Amino acid sequence: MVPLKTVLVDDEPLALQLLQSLLEDIPDIEVITTCRNGREALNAVATHLPDLLFLDIQMPGMNGFDVIGRLQGDIIPQVIFATAYDHYAVEAFDVNAVDYVLKPMEPERLALAVDRARARLRQQGQQQDHSQADEKGRLLSSLTSTSSQTQAVNSPVDTPGKLAIKDGGRIILANQSDIQWIDAAGDYMCVHTNGETHIMRSTLKELQQQLCPNTFKRVHRSTLVNLNYIQEIQVLTKGEYLLTLASSEKIKVSRNYRQSIKEYLEQNQTKTAV
Fold first, then answer.
1. In this structure, are residues 54 and 77 in contact, taking their beta carbons and an 8 Å threshold?
2. Parallel, antiparallel or unpaired: strands 52-56 and 4-9
3. Which of 38, 96, 109, 241, by CA, is between 20 and 30 Å from 216?
């Protein structure tokens, strides 16, 4: 059996050590790195492309839910939450098919969560039309099931250069120039601005029609990037790129969509030469 490449995320060093120790007793688990906060988790997922992510919910700054919202939908791993929530909240996660381990962790419960992740990975491998973006959509559906939904709306006034987002009883007008990247996750769109993520119901096609086509380019099946925020481009071995944005976010560019980045590089090289 191929080992599951696994990343552990928890802001408590002792909790990380305990989890890593317990996972050593479960066959075919390869812990490739550990993270102390949400920012490290995002970088680890983009860099290592793990199969499995153990994610603490209650962390200072960026909590576990925030991490899910900012993960690129096309490369999201299986997620097992670590939570100290009470029995009823845990049942809610279970009903929504989000795996969890309750702190303090029990070896039997941990092994069951890993088995569930393996089963879901096998199922996805058998479904040719399944995508990792759908997995993120499933997670977001669970996380937002008890909160007010957001959705894209037609702008109520003439607001060029802005994106209108309905959030409960209010409408947020986000400047397109503040949007760093966008990814689709099932029925949801995650719009990542400077330090904030807006989750809305929309299709990628509908949202693209509202965005400047020269600024926002598709770099993956479900991911758009604002070219103005690209700080670094790393060439990967399989003909793919890894973008680092101004926020230090890392975005993977698939081979099918690398042409837009190649053109961006050529244009900027020309400008530099001039």
1. no
2. parallel
3. 38
With H, G, I as helix, E, B as strand and everything else as coil, classify residue 247: coil
Of 143, 159, 182, the last residue of a domain is 143
pLDDT digits (tens, 9 = 90+) for 182-191: 998 877 889 9
Residues whose CB falls within 8 Å of the CB of residue 85, separated by 6 or more in sequence, listed in order:
57, 93, 102
Is residue 219 within 8 Å of 154, Cβ to Cβ? no
Residue 98 neighbours by CB under 8 Å, 6+ apart: 79, 81, 139, 142, 143
> What digits encode the pLDDT tens for the residues 95-129?
444 678 888 899 999 999 999 999 988 887 766 55
Per-residue pLDDT at 255 exceeds 50? yes
**Whole-structure pTM value:** 0.79
Q: Give how many domains the chain has, as a whole number.
A: 2
Higher-confidence residue: 247 or 141? 247
Q: What is the spatial distance between Cα 127 and Cα 119, in angstroms, rounded to a whole number?
A: 13
Statement: residue 243 has pLDDT above 70: yes
d(CA 33, CA 40): 10
Q: Which domain does 263 fall in, by range?
A: 150-273
Q: Judging by beta carbons within 10 Å of its beta carbon (0-12, 13-18, 19+), is residue 211 exposed, middle or buried?
A: middle
Instruction: Tell me if 100 sits within 8 A of 94, measured CB to CB.
Output: yes
